From TrEMBL:
Pfam families the record matches: DUF559, PDDEXK_1
Domain PD-(D/E)XK endonuclease-like positions: 895-1193
Protein's name in the database: Very-short-patch-repair endonuclease
Domain (DUF559) ranges: 476-584
Sections of the chain in a coiled coil: 1059-1086
UniProt-recorded Gene Ontology molecular function terms: endonuclease activity
InterPro entries xref list: DUF559 (IPR007569), Endonuclease_DUF559_bact (IPR047216), P-loop_NTPase (IPR027417), PDDEXK-like_dom_sf (IPR011604), PDDEXK_AddAB-type (IPR038726), Restrct_endonuc-II-like (IPR011335)
Length: 1195
């Protein structure tokens, strides 16, 4: 394929001898085009020769004028100084909001050689009002068109011409220019800068389109001298002769001129060149629609891999100059595209800069500003006047979870080099990705597989330790772990047999379990203890160093590692077991873990030991992890700097990032300098060249900002400092351009000027992107832009420019892929670009050699089909049945367990067997659960006082409680709502609601109870046993429950009471005798009825047992006491105690009630342990909306 630059180089080379070429100047629109042209020219000669001057148009202008271009940030301050001279009251913050736009307008004014005085006069108040009145007509002329808004608008432009003039003068005195100023200077002084110097023999302008007025004047001036300049155009018959095609609008003007206005064509002897590639060339065009923007990058990566595969298989012959381009309509796709390329793709070049604003470093900087901005002040606990600023937990967690700080954390807590890993690829729903989750209960059969939830086939759904590995690495680790379990070594098999047979008691262990990037032999997750068995291979080569590194990595995760040689297990396994048990008991003793109690706080928090009070044992954890756990587990909504430093034990990182800036930019700069010092080693360790360059560029920015602050102490506030710093960051780009000619080029649309590629992938071919649409970043109104006397570019100009770049890129390409985002529900979003419609309905008809196709994009949802996921069910394996039997015979069946199983057996499995718990979050306002816990705790504290004082409650006692209710409410709130404040916002309202409920209930008791009332016990746990026959086994099944309150009213009536903060009505607690058999274990809505039934059953069963029921020294029996169970509903207090009146048959005795109850319990246990009945989803989905496990189920 002969490219346009190949042809241009060949033509120019043929026009001059080698001696003459060194005196030729060739001007090309872009620097990338300069590189390609030089390469094309060099290939034309077998002998060396002095090269001509080949310059981009910007370099040409600056070289000809000899001026220095000022950087944008310095220009902003120069502009501000000029404004201050004219308007001393201008605020820097407001100035920054429109300063860049104004400078852009000045640049356009100069590039298009506009009479600035005439333009700003046109925009003045008098002229504008005159035009508006003419447009409105005679009927509106007498109306006052001036408003406050128009006054403010015109005030802005009153002095802009003076600002424009003064800025230019100020820069000229320093020998500086902005870009447009240099263009104007050259265009108005071509004789001075070019013709009089007579530096070059001839000038060639290659591949231009849509010239600015300054560029056009420069070229026309040079063309007037005979054989002194020549233009080479890249045009095609399709865009040039099709009058309706915007892409050729400017080229037609340059070829034909404008006879009416006496403007000649913009070439000398002949028009060079016009091709017919678009109307005759063979092209395979694929138009691909995708559901969202991010998928475009994956599509580009996939297509490029497939093209490479074709080359490797010999299906395509690679031409010498054949290249591929991935062109980004939206340059924000640069990083996703880079990440989508296969690791085998080494030879690619990026011909565009990546803004510092797109870096991970910027997200950290932004998070630190957000952290400081969201400081909240609190009064001291004693109500003093001193206010303590505190950070919000949201910003603290966001900062501490930043990848750079996590990388620093890993590096600091391991002094060995870390292996270089490719960054993990993000996973999202719908693309086969699975999001990480935390699993709490390690004691279930599920975890013996070493993972979290599984689908019906036993395949992994989610993974507990997915933090550092990419998805592909994770899948490999899981498969490798499964293979290891199937093929254990002899020592592993011996130790596993001992461990699985409970020779260490109830300590739960997993084998071949993956933690981050490692697979460990055995792990006791509850105790954070890892056991490794090492063969002889561990003692050779670098393996000892790797084992040491691996141990340090695991230590950083909070694990202790014990290593044994295979021989130790083979020769004396009992000694190995004793050693392991010693460490397990030591860890358990230190942390207060109750090994046999899986209902302890530990089992609901996943890994990490806790003490007996539920506090986390953080001795082995680093400051970041300690802080994150402290925030989550203690619900720390706000934390002061002092509190954070105490948790982190004055760690150096915390001293830097959590120090108050006090609205002082100098403090912010000091913080950033200190952060750079901390992160420098992290960047070196990771050997990430791009991020390292970002860090260096940020350091340079800080130095500039420090100098500015020093010079302008009274000018820069914290707000303006942030605005200015972010402007600095936005303009700072890391250039990726190189001098290499790789086979893959990644570039923006403007970088493609003059370049040709055999294969092209263009992304974001949507309206609003290609072309950009009607967006105009300017302060100049449209009527002024479009007025012929100024001839400034509008959106129509931008549309025609983009159309030319687009179709010129297709001109010589053979394989073309155009990717666009499909329409969404949002109005106007995802509209297909007009360029695609022109190809489909116009170009394809002109050129019969175009093959147009519309491939679709499909993503495979992992190893299993999505249909299988929707049919998720869990078979009751022998392990699972054994686990359930142990649970119901040792801990018992609670009413909540029964109700959960009957509501949704799969939910029961996830919660009670798999131990999958909802990830803990910090509550900023009183939630439904915490509200209920608070009310319950209030009454628990009140009732406990009565029980402790003998249990007898007189009416006067309750009246005293009511008078002092605030102290009870505050104490209970403090106990149940750690970190929450009730002084303001929604919490204040909810606190008042809770206070009203408590007072209303107490008043109800005062009016309706029979005094004296005898409180027997509070928060009483009952547990009784019955014998069930299941699967040819006799099981001693326990029924258990925790009762809110037991009292005795009217002398002998024992009431088992449950408090409900939700609304309960009498109908919820009734079932007709004839419907009992059908509904008791079937009706999902009768959960409260079942709860009261089991409460009554447990009390009567205990009373009739051999030992009877004794509460607080009071022996209760069924003969002297009548038993009932009921609910107080705090949203239905006026209904009183809602009591359940269950009878299996009329006139039944207590023994009959117990006997019939146990028949139903037998049926429930039989169903629960039926191996033929898998755990499955409930059929109706209405109640799945608020279920914690709906994502696992696919609902």
């Amino acid at each position: 394929m002969q490219t346009f630059l190949d042809r241009s180089a060949q033509y120019i080379y043929s026009q001059h001898s080698h001696n003459q070429l060194s005196k030729v100047c060739i001007v090309i629109p872009s620097r990338r085009g300069v590189l390609y042209f030089k390469q094309a020219l060099a290939q034309l000669s077998d002998v060396p020769f002095l090269a001509p001057d080949v310059l981009s148009v910007d370099d040409f202008v600056m070289q000809m004028t000899g001026l220095r271009q000022i950087d944008q940030v310095a220009l902003l301050f120069e502009l501000y100084d000029v404004f201050k001279e004219i308007d001393p009251n201008v605020a820097f913050e407001k100035f920054m909001t429109w300063a860049s736009t104004l400078l852009n307008d000045f640049d356009k004014i100069d590039q298009y050689l506009v009479d600035a005085k005439a333009l700003f006069s046109y925009m003045s108040e008098a002229k504008a009002l005159e035009r508006w009145q003419m447009q409105l007509g005679e009927s509106q002329k007498d109306k006052n068109l001036k408003t406050d808004r128009t006054d403010r608008y015109f005030k802005l432009f009153e002095n802009i011409f003076s600002v424009y003039q003064n800025l230019r003068n100020r820069l000229s005195e320093q020998g500086l220019v902005y870009r447009g100023m240099a263009y104007r200077d050259l265009a108005e002084n071509v004789d001075k800068y070019i013709l009089e110097k007579d530096k070059h023999l001839k000038y060639y302008f290659v591949g231009f389109n849509a010239l600015s007025d300054a560029e056009e004047r420069i070229i026309r001036t040079l063309l007037k001298r005979r054989d002194f300049a020549e233009t080479l155009w890249d045009t095609d018959t399709y865009i040039l002769k099709n009058k309706d095609q915007k892409a050729g609008a400017w080229l037609r003007y340059y070829k034909e001129g404008d006879d009416k206005n006496g403007i000649p064509p913009l070439y000398n002897k002949e028009w060079l060149w016009e091709t017919d590639e678009l109307v005759k060339g063979t092209k395979n065009i694929q138009v691909i629609g995708v559901s969202n923007a991010s998928i475009q990058a994956k599509v580009a990566g996939h297509i490029y891999r497939s093209w490479n595969a074709e080359k490797e298989e010999g299906e395509k012959v690679k031409e010498e100059n054949a290249q591929t381009a991935i062109v980004l309509g939206d340059e924000n796709l640069l990083v996703p595209v880079m990440n989508s390329l296969d690791e085998s793709v080494k030879d690619f070049n990026i011909t565009m800069g990546l803004s510092l604003k797109n870096s991970m470093l910027f997200t950290l900087i932004d998070s630190l500003f957000e952290l400081q901005r969201n400081l909240v002040e609190f009064k001291t606990e004693d109500g003093g006047t001193v206010r303590i600023p505190k950070f919000s937990h949201r910003q603290v967690v966001k900062v501490l979870n930043h990848p750079f700080l996590r990388r620093w954390e890993l590096m600091k807590y391991s002094d060995k080099p870390h292996p270089k890993r490719r960054s993990p690829q993000p996973l999202s729903d719908g693309e086969g990705g699975i999001r990480p989750n935390q699993f709490a209960d390690e004691n279930s059969p599920l975890h013996r597989r070493g993972v979290g939830a599984t689908d019906a086939s036993g395949e992994v759904l989610e993974h507990k330790f997915y933090q550092k590995s990419g998805y592909e690495e994770w899948k490999y680790l899981k498969q490798f772990a499964r293979d290891n379990r199937k093929n254990p070594t002899e020592s592993e098999e011996i130790l596993w047999e001992k461990l699985r047979n409970k020779q260490l008691g109830d300590f739960r262990v997993r084998r071949q379990h993956s933690i981050n990037s490692f697979i460990v032999d055995f792990v006791f997750l509850k105790q954070n203890l890892i056991i490794e068995l090492d063969g002889g291979i561990h003692e050779v080569d670098d393996n000892p160093k790797y084992d040491e590194y691996r141990t340090q990595e695991l230590n950083a995760e909070g694990f202790r590692v014990l290593r044994f040689k295979n021989e130790e297990v083979l020769e004396n396994v009992d000694e190995v077991l004793k050693t392991i048990l010693y460490y397990l008991n030591n860890i358990t003793k230190q942390s207060g873990i109750e090994v046999s109690d899986e209902n302890s706080p530990l089992s609901r928090r996943g890994v990490g030991a806790t003490d007996a009070s539920g506090e986390v044992n953080t001795e082995a954890l680093n400051p970041i992890r300690k802080t994150l756990r402290e925030i989550t587990e203690r619900n720390r909504v706000f934390l002061s700097s002092k509190e954070l430093l105490e948790i982190a034990e004055n760690d150096s990182l915390f001293e830097v990032i959590f120090k108050h800036w006090n609205n002082n930019p100098q403090n912010a700069i000091k913080c950033f300098y200190a952060l750079i010092d901390l992160l420098r080693d992290v960047y070196k360790e990771s050997q990430d060249a791009v991020e390292t360059e970002y860090l260096y560029q940020f350091y340079l920015i800080l130095q500039r900002m420090e100098g500015i602050l020093e010079a302008r102490k009274d000018t820069v506030t914290m707000r303006s400092f942030k605005t200015f710093l972010f402007e600095f960051i936005k303009q700072t780009k890391i250039p990726f351009e190189s001098e290499t000619d790789e086979s893959l080029q990644i570039m923006g649309m403007l970088e493609t000027r003059t370049l040709d590629f055999e294969k092209v992938i263009i992304l974001s071919v949507n309206e609003g992107t290609l072309p950009q649409g009607k967006r105009q970043n300017t302060l100049i109104p449209f009527d002024a832009l479009s007025d012929p006397q100024f001839n400034l570019p509008t959106h129509n100009h931008a549309d025609s420019v983009m159309a030319y770049h687009f179709f010129r890129l297709l001109q010589r390409a053979k394989e073309i892929v155009l990717v666009h985002v499909l329409p969404s529900d949002t109005y106007g979003a995802g509209e297909k670009s007009r360029f695609l419609l022109q190809i489909e309905h116009e170009l394809a008809k002109f050129n019969k050699n175009i093959t147009l196709s519309y491939p679709t994009v499909k993503f495979i949802a992992g190893d299993e089909e999505r249909e299988e996921e929707t049919k998720l069910e869990i078979q009751k394996t022998d392990d699972i049945l054994a686990f359930i039997e142990k649970e119901i015979t040792e801990k018992g069946i609670y009413p909540s367990h029964m109700n959960q199983y009957l509501d949704c057996s799969l939910k029961y499995y996830f919660s009670k067997i798999a131990g999958i718990a909802e990830e803990e979050t910090v509550e900023e306002k009183i939630g439904v659960d915490t509200f209920g816990n608070w009310i319950h705790k209030t009454f628990e504290n009140i009732d406990s006082e009565f029980v402790a004082n003998g249990g007898v409650v007189e009416k006067e006692d309750l009246e005293t409680v009511l008078k002092n209710i605030q102290s009870y409410l505050k104490q209970a709130f403090k106990e149940t709502n750690q970190g929450l404040r009730a002084e303001e916002g929604m919490n204040y309202i909810l606190y008042q609601v809770g206070e009203t409920i408590v007072k209303k209930f107490l008043r109800y008791q005062l009016d309706n109870e029979l005094f004296p009332l005898e409180l027997l016990d509070v928060e009483k746990t009952l547990k009784v046993q019955f014998v069930a026959q299941v699967n040819n086994k006799t099981l001693p099944v326990k029924i258990a429950g925790r009762i809110d309150r037991m009292d005795r009213a009217g002398g002998n009536k024992i009431r088992v009471i449950d408090y409900k903060t939700g609304k309960v009505e009498a109908k919820d607690l009734k079932i007709n005798i004839e419907d009992l058999a059908e509904n008791l274990l079937i009706d999902k809505e009768k959960d409260k009825f079942r709860q009261l039934w089991l409460y009554k059953y447990m009390v009567l069963k205990q009373m009739t047992s051999k030992n009877g029921l004794t509460i607080n020294g009071i022996k209760l029996n069924e003969v002297e006491n009548e038993v009932s169970s009921g609910i107080y509903s705090f949203r239905n207090i006026e209904a009183g105690l809602l009591q359940q009146s269950i009878e299996f048959q009329e006139g039944e005795t207590i023994q009959d009630f117990i006997f019939e109850s146990e028949k139903y319990l037998q049926n429930f246990v039989s169903d629960l342990l039926d191996p033929e009945k898998p755990f499955e989803k409930r059929k109706d989905v209405e109640n799945c909306v608020y279920c914690d496990y709906r994502r696992i189920c696919g609902r």
